[in-house]
Each structure stands twice: as structure tokens, then as C-alpha cells.
UniProtKB/TrEMBL annotation:
GO cellular component assignments: endoplasmic reticulum
Keywords per UniProt: Oxidoreductase
Annotated organism of origin: Macrostomum lignano
Name recorded for this polypeptide: NADP-dependent 3-hydroxy acid dehydrogenase YdfG
EC numbers on record: 1.1.1.298, 1.1.1.381
């Protein structure tokens, strides 16, 4: 500052936490973030902590400094804070570690310290971590983690394009964490992750499935996971999603629960953000969230007709619009929309439902024309009656219409797995093949 006051061309850099570089994860061995990572993975325990982690890959920091020095006249007098504008929560990091092949048990912070003390005798980094924690919080409490301050990095971010760093500040996301964990494990600094052994045709792909807590969505999520996809499970009922997730984990698959109501754009965007942080960018989106209520047009059940439009039409648009920029950016992706045979033919007792599925058809066809040249595929799956909770008649629906028009008990319905197989067929095709529509019905009940 004194040099600046005397008229010297000075740029001030104020650094936040520096993490390893993005190629090799070369990292200061005494850094708190690295030591915490080692403490968690060596103990197999994730302490409950209110901690937002902020760090910047050190190669980015050095790039900024070298490039800014080369443009001294442009940037002299500025203060650049190299502090990550988008920290992640420690909880999210632990969730990411869990889906990335590490088994972690949630414990209280105090119990974790007891475990670390036992490990410290045989493990140098754990001993260093305990020393550091003792310095930061001599009382042994975890309040320190909740008190971290941050700095405004707007001035730096505004300068990034002129520094030739157009891709912006490095986000703390799945791809960066994957590099760190892999490189550190190769050097023996972290234990190795358990690999996804399913080895299917879709290995390495990320799929987001709405309506994954029940019926067709659940069967599709399970089938995609069996085939190697990492799956983000979306629906409102978190407890149901957790059961589906546990089933997929037990079968050696990878899944995360992203609870959301698809009628809320904000909740859908948060679910997509969680998917990106924990699994990566979605390659496949399956829109299976939907409702079907028997309501003849004259039955006056407006709360059910409104709900049908909100979930089946608006909800689907919300998820498509949330993932589309990601897929367009990458020049690839596959959107699978659950339409219905009611998207091809009218069904009495289901006027609004039929209308909602005609919407899904029209929307999907126009969308396909808009994005096909950008590398994206859009598939409409049109099942006939499938044996799921959707076919039941709600107490407040039009029971007379259900009795007269529903297919229940009249023929053998499809099973959710029959629809899942059709969807798997569509998403397994080579990129130049577009399976645009699949009508799959009970043999006994063609439209
Ligand atoms: N079953 C059938 O005969 C046929 C079904 N289809 C279509 O297939 C799709 C799936 O139906 P199916 O599996 O049978 O039905 P289910 O009732 O078994 O499942 C519906 C799913 O949608 C989710 N859902 C409902 N509302 C919302 C919401 N607001 N936000 C997020 N998720 C929501 C439910 O989860 P939660 O309650 O936890 O939010 C549930 O996971 C639907 O689009 C349906 O129209 C098409 C043809 C035939
Ligand atoms: C009209 C229908 O019952 C259709 N099979 C559906 O459930 O979407």
C-alpha cells in the first residue's frame, strides 16, 4: 500500500484458501482442507459440521498473477481477492464422497475427534490435523468452522475476460473434486474409492429422473443405475427417494436423492445444482413425474385439473428448461418425456389428462426440431396402462368415471419395468440415432 501511495504500479492479491492444482492436485500438506479430507476418509466418518468450504486451485491463482502482471498498466491499483465466490457446504462434500465410492458414517464432531486421536498414532496427517484443530479451537469445539469470513471477488471476476480466463472462477464441482480425490489416492494420500462395478453400456453417464419415488420413474432409475448411470432421483417424498437410493446402492449402483416439487422452478433448479455438484452434468433427463385424476370436463373438480396442468405441463417445462442450457453448452444430451397413449388418442374421463399429454407431445416435437442440430435427442414414450399407484382413484376424484373408463381389472397391464426397458433401448442407441417415439401398450389393449 505504501508503494502504491508513492506512485508505484501495484496490484494487491489477497488469497483465500489455496487447494491443489487441477492437473495433479499438488497441495500444501499442512492445508486444513486437505487434512480434513484425509481425516474424513481415513476415519470413514463424516462429522456433523456447519462449515462452508472455500478454496481456489493454486494453478488458477498463479495464472491470474502472471497474466495480471503482464498487463500491469491495465490493472495497477486494483485489489484482487482470490476467494472462491461459490463455497460448498461440508455436508455436500460428504454426500459427494459417499456417492463417489466412499462409505461414510455421520457422527458428532466430538466423537470424530476421539476416533482421530486413535488414528493419529499411526497416521502423520491425522496427527497434523489434530494439532491444527487444537490451535484453531483449543476448547475442542467446532464453532470455528461456522465463523469463516469471505471477501468480495467481484473486481477480480470482472477482470477475468481481459486476462484471457473467460471460463471464469473455477467452480468447486464434481469434476474438480473427482480429479483431486483420484490424484491424491494415486499418491497414497487418500484411500482409494470403491469403483462402480456395474460396467453397463451407460457407465459414466449421469441421469436425472423425476418421479423416481414411485412406479415408472423408480423402475427407470433402477434400470439406468444397473446399466452404469449415476442417477439423481427427483420427487417430493424424500423418505421414498431414500429407499430407492438405498436399493440402488445395495445393487452396487450410484444414486443421490434430490427432493424437489417440479411445480416449483426454484426447487427444480436447486435439484439440478445438487445433481451437478454430486454427480456432474446430466447427460440424460427422464421426465416421469406426473399425476392422473379421473375428472370428466363437467365434474367441476378444478383443483385436480389445475394440479394436472401444473405437474404434467409446467413441471416438465421447468425440468427441461433447467437442464437445457447445460446440454446445449456441451452439445449433447437426451431428454425422455413420459407422455402416454393418451398423448396419441383421447380417453374419456381424462379430458384434462389427455390434454396434458397432447401438450407433452407437441412440446417435445417442437423442442426436438429446435435442438436436434445442437446434438440433443428428445424421445417421447407413450405407455398404455401400467400397474402403478397412478391408476388408483383418489377419494376426491370422479369415481364414476374411474369405474366406467379405467382399464383396471379389464386386461393385463404393463409393469413399470416394461416401460423402463423401452427407455433403456432409446438411451442406449448411438448418438446419430433418434428414437423419437415409443408406443408401448398392453397387448390386449391397443389404442
Ligand atoms: N401408470 C400408467 O398407466 C401410465 C403412466 N404414464 C405417465 O408416466 C409417468 C409416471 O407415472 P407412474 O409411475 O405410473 O405414476 P406414480 O404415481 O407411480 O408416480 C408418479 C411420480 O411422480 C411424482 N410426482 C408427482 N407430483 C410431483 C411433483 N409435484 N413434483 C415432483 N414429483 C412429483 C411422484 O412422487 P412424489 O409423490 O414423491 O412427489 C411419483 O414419483 C406420469 O407422467 C404418467 O402420466 C403414462 C402412461 C401410462
Ligand atoms: C389413459 C391412460 O390411462 C393411460 N394409459 C395413462 O395412464 O396415461
Amino acid at each position: 500500500m505504501k508503494a502504491r501511495a508513492r506512485g508505484m504500479p501495484v496490484i494487491v492479491y489477497r488469497l483465500g484458501n489455496q487447494a491443489g492444482d487441477r492437473a495433479n492436485a499438488a497441495w500444501n500438506p499442512q492445508d486444513l482442507t486437505l487434512l480434513m479430507l484425509q481425516g474424513v476418509l481415513r476415519s470413514g466418518q463424516a462429522p456433523r459440521l456447519n462449515w462452508r468450504l472455500e478454496f481456489t486451485p493454486v494453478d488458477f491463482t498463479s495464472e491470474v498473477i502472471v497474466r495480471a502482471m503482464a498487463q500491469l498498466s491495465l490493472h495497477a491499483g486494483k485489489i484482487f481477492h482470490l476467494v472462491n465466490p461459490q463455497p460448498i457446504s461440508f455436508d455436500l462434500l460428504c454426500d459427494w464422497l459417499s456417492v463417489s465410492g466412499y462409505t461414510l458414517r455421520r457422527v458428532d464432531y466430538a466423537d470424530w475427534l476421539v476416533e482421530l486421536r486413535q488414528l493419529a498414532e499411526a497416521c502423520q496427517p491425522i496427527a497434523s490435523l489434530l494439532r491444527l484443530l487444537e490451535e484453531l479451537a483449543p476448547s475442542g469445539g467446532s464453532q470455528y468452522f461456522g465463523q469463516l469470513s469471505t471477501f468480495d471477488s467481484r473486481q477480480l471476476r470482472a477482470a477475468l475476460p481481459s486476462l484471457g480466463l473467460e471460463s471464469g472462477y473455477p467452480a468447486i464441482e464434481s469434476s474438480l473434486l473427482a480429479v483431486y480425490v483420484a490424484r491424491l489416492a494415486e499418491r497414497g494420500l487418500l484411500p482409494r474409492a470403491r469403483r462402480n462395478t456395474s460396467g453397463g453400456a451407460l457407465l459414466g453417464k449421469v441421469a436425472m429422473v423425476t418421479g423416481a419415488s414411485s412406479g415408472i420413474g423408480q423402475a427407470v432409475a433402477q434400470a439406468l443405475a444397473r446399466d452404469g448411470c449415476q442417477v439423481a432421483l427427483v420427487a417430493r417424498r424424500a423418505d421414498q427417494l431414500e429407499q430407492v437410493r438405498q436399493g440402488i446402492l445395495a445393487a452396487q449402483g450410484v444414486a443421490v436423492a434430490c427432493p424437489a416439487d417440479v411445480t416449483s422452478r426454484a426447487e427444480v433448479e436447486a435439484a439440478v445444482a445438487r445433481c451437478r455438484s454430486l454427480l456432474g452434468q446430466p447427460d440424460i433427463l427422464v421426465n416421469s413425474a406426473g399425476v392422473m385424476y379421473y375428472t370428466r370436463a363437467f365434474s367441476g373438480l378444478t383443483h385436480l385439473t389445475d394440479r394436472t396442468i401444473d405437474v404434467n405441463c409446467r413441471g416438465l417445462v421447468h425440468t427441461v428448461e433447467a437442464v437445457l442450457p447445460i446440454m446445449l453448452d456441451r452439445g449433447g444430451g437426451h431428454i425422455v418425456n413420459l407422455s402416454s397413449d393418451a398423448g396419441r388418442a383421447p380417453f374419456p374421463g381424462l379430458a384434462v389428462y389427455t390434454g396434458s399429454k397432447f401438450f407433452v407431445e407437441g412440446y417435445s416435437r417442437a423442442l426436438r426440431l429446435e435442438v436436434a442440430s445442437r446434438g440433443l435427442r428428445v424421445t417421447c414414450v407413450q405407455p398404455g396402462d401400467v400397474r402403478t399407484p397412478l391408476q388408483a382413484c383418489r377419494d376426491d376424484a370422479d369415481s364414476e368415471a374411474h369405474k366406467e373408463f379405467s382399464g383396471q381389472g379389464k386386461y393385463t397391464m404393463l409393469e413399470p419395468e416394461d416401460v423402463a426397458r423401452a427407455i433403456l433401448y432409446a438411451v442406449q442407441q448411438p448418438p446419430h440415432v433418434g428414437v423419437n417415439e415409443i408406443l408401448v401398450e398392453s397387448r390386449e389393449a391397443p389404442i
